[in-house]
Specification:
This protein is α/β, with parallel strands linked by helices. It contains twelve helices and 13 strands. The chain is globular, with a radius of gyration of 21 Å. The termini are close together.
Length: about 375
């Protein structure tokens, strides 16, 4: 069985193996850019490194869903200062400004973080609603086929869908504290914004279903802090149930991304309708034990990842990392796509990835 076939079989519930699918992009691209790849990988390209590790690729075949604005009456102006990158977006309803702080490392731009969020008032939120209402989608089958052919047997193409509107509000427009103040002080305005997000999602699914993806990922960042149970029940659960019902009716699968402390949310997983959940970092990284996660997912929900990224740092031993991996396989196989929660970092030890490749091979065999 190929890695691509096993990837799909796990979601279909017909697999008897574990798929080893660590996300290595951050590690690979960092060391390629720095010229610090270990000698055994220096002459290999991105997919070649995955092949050397006999690992599956999750998101290298995600192309094909394109967005555009219609009507195209939103303007964006940018300004670069010594330390800030400033973006001003103007719609028929007004103008909002986002201030990004540039972070440099050895004279090179290493990161760009929002230091000033654009939305403070319902009037600001109206500009975002204009953007959402104008965002349209189309399917590009040629782009999908090119990406899927390039990845080949290494993994099932997985399409990206949007995250839920409330976490988008936090991440892109207000920050955590102001999102909750806005919801408390102006609930009708936030509900109008969520409705616009949901309309956008409907249009996105229309286009996504024109592509051959069998598996989709929702880019949610669901955590205790972002979406505590009252928020999750109000905004997330109805959205997940609606999306999964539509995808299941078209013989598709969908998983969500929970990448932080999520113990309080685990009881809601089964009623979400979701086929899988990605990341769920357990202790010592998140706030959940493997036993708590297993009780929540049962035998029906696929877990993607589950190996804490901190275990790949130098201050955790190889034995600790491998013993934890054995526990994960014993508890969650075969409804398991084994990987690192969330990803191995730039300074993670690739030797531990290599050792897990050997462990999976000895335990249940590696897919081709």
């Amino acid at each position: 069985m190929t890695r691509r076939e096993l990837n799909l079989a796990i979601f279909e519930g017909t697999a008897n193996q574990v798929l080893w699918q660590p996300r290595l992009e951050t590690w690979i691209f960092h060391h390629q850019a720095k010229g610090t790849l270990p000698d055994r990988y220096k002459d290999l390209d991105y997919l070649g490194i995955y092949d050397a590790l006999h690992a599956s690729v999750r998101y290298a075949a995600s192309a094909g869903l394109e967005s555009y604005l219609e009507p195209d009456d939103i303007t964006v102006e940018t300004e670069q200062t010594d330390i800030n990158y400033i973006v001003r977006m103007t719609s028929p309803s007004g103008t909002v400004t986002t201030i990004h702080q540039d972070c440099y490392e050895e004279g090179q731009l290493a990161n760009r973080r929002i230091a000033g969020f654009p939305v403070k008032t319902p009037a600001d939120l109206r500009v975002v609603i204009d953007l959402l209402d104008r965002t349209q989608f189309r399917a590009n089958l040629d782009a999908y086929n090119a990406a899927a052919d390039n990845v080949g047997h290494r993994g099932a193409p997985t399409g990206w869908l949007s995250s839920d509107g409330f976490t988008e509000l936090i991440k892109n427009y207000t920050g955590l504290i102001d999102a909750n103040y806005l919801l408390h002080d102006y609930p009708a305005a936030v509900e109008e914004y969520i409705d616009a997000c949901n309309r956008r999602d409907d249009r996105m699914l229309d286009a996504a279903l024109e592509l051959p993806f069998r598996i989709y990922n929702l880019g949610d960042h669901t955590t205790n802090e972002f979406t505590p149970p009252p928020i999750l029940k109000r905004f997330c659960l109805p959205r997940w149930q609606k999306i999964t019902a539509r995808l299941h009716a078209n013989d598709r699968f969908v998983h969500t991304h929970w990448d932080g402390n999520s113990r309080l949310l685990l009881p809601y997983l089964r009623e979400s309708g979701l086929d899988g959940v990605e990341a769920l970092p357990p202790l010592p990284m998140g706030d959940m034990t493997l036993e708590e996660i297993k009780a929540a997912v049962g035998e029906s929900i696929v877990c993607l990842d589950l190996l804490p990224a901190v275990h790949f740092m130098t201050h955790y031993s190889m034995a600790t990392c491998l013993d934890f991996t054995k526990r994960v396989i014993d508890m969650f196989a075969p409804r398991l796509i084994l990987g690192v929660s969330d990803e191995i970092s730039q300074v993670g030890e690739i030797e531990k990835i290599e050792a897990i490749t050997d462990l999976v091979d000895k335990t249940c065999g590696l897919a081709d």
